[in-house]
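[step 3/7] fold_predict: job queued, chain A
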Amino acid sequence: MNAGRSLASLAAELDRQTSTRKDFIAAQGAVEAVVLTPEGAPALAIAGLPDLDPVTLTPYAHGQLSDHLGIPKKYYDRMAAETPQLLADSVNVWFKKDAGNRRMLRTLDGKVRAVLSPKFRALDNYDLMAAVLPVLIENKVQIMSTELTETRLYIKGILPSLSDELGEGLAYGGHTYIPGDRGHLVAAVTISNSDIGAGTLRIEPSVFTTRCTNLAQLKSAAMKKYHAGRANSADESWQVFVDETRRADDAAFWLKVRDITAAAFDEKQFRIAIARIRETAANAITSDDLPKVVDLTVERLALPPSLNSGILKALAAGGDLTQWGLSSAITRVANDQTDYELSTLLERAGGEVLELSPSQWQAVAA
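[step 4/7] structure written:
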């Protein structure tokens, strides 16, 4: 598991962002793309807000704008790099063709970090942390990893008191075990959110392997919440403030998130998951072509092809040619990633391998 940043560091950064970010909703006719320097990428300015200087866009916000305006991303990126004024002109033409269409712009540190529908329900990272952290502390969950990337917040924790011995068949090879102790499978949870539209709020029950620090997220048990809500309907450009009305509307939702977080450590569900995992240890890879097995798995899980060789190496080193062994190889590679997003993607993929149906497993392993 990628350790990320400390909980204290995460809390401090979320507090800073909450006090400095600004959100705006404006009709496209009031938004103009401008080029600040001849070689710079376009920034956005909003008419009627003279105290707001033009703000640059993050790479993710550029992608959202490209998608919203229907400008192919490859062409959009080329214009941004080679002819920024042409890109600004193109954006302005399409803005004015639908001038009444409204957009929510989320800004932080002088940058537009999201270009969203006004229906976007901002489930903010600070509010999520305030909702789940007391539950985790109350249930004696050990926070193992947190991170705040450009697009998402992550909190990962384990509950050592809810565990089961690995036992025969589940001890992933390549590790030295203390005599009499073959490690444990421990109940875990992965909580993630994007307050800029890069995916849903997710609470994913997970399983942590103590001896090799691998984490596998169980997709089938995950809670997801899409960031959609009622459209804001002001008649002119305006700044969106976090007010008491919105906090009251969100209160019931955050109570539900607290309940789901606590339920992630339900013992009955944990035992069911462990029983399913034990079954995977008996599902052998019957193909003699291991590279092909890895290729098919990577393709099925939509992982970057550049990971194929690392997964194959981990699978061979582990020596466990089963469904459990393949999952462990994938989560082992997750531990080596410096990119937190990629590490988490691999942890989710490891869980997906464990949840493959018999027919799906045969399609990659036979």
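[step 5/7] annotate
Residues 293 and 364 are 5 Å apart (CA to CA).
The radius of gyration is 23 Å.
exit 0
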